[in-house]
Amino acid sequence: MDNSDLIIRIIRAFNSLPSAIKDRKRFRELLSHLDEIKRIVVDKRPPRLAVVGRRGAGKSALFNALVDRKILLEGEVDTTSTCSWQSYKLQDEVEISWIDTPGLGAGQLKTERVQLLQLEFGRRPPDVLIFVHKASEVDSDIDATLDDLQQIVECTGEESARAELIVVLNQVDGIRSPLDLVPPYTKEKQDRIALIQKKLEWHLERRGIKYKCVVPAVAYFDDEHDLRFNIEGVATEIGRSIPSEAMLGASAALKFNGFKREIASKIVSLCAVAASCIALIPIPLSDIIPLTALQALMISLIGVLGGKTLSDIEIREFIVALGLLVATATAARQIVRTVLPLLGTGVSVAVAGATTRGIGAAAIAHYIDGESLHEARKKLRSLIK
Ligand SMILES: Nc1nc2c(ncn2[C@@H]2O[C@H](COP(=O)(O)OP(=O)(O)O)[C@@H](O)[C@H]2O)c(=O)[nH]1
Ligand SMILES: [Mg+2]
Question: Domain for residue 251, yes or no?
Answer without folding.
Answer: no
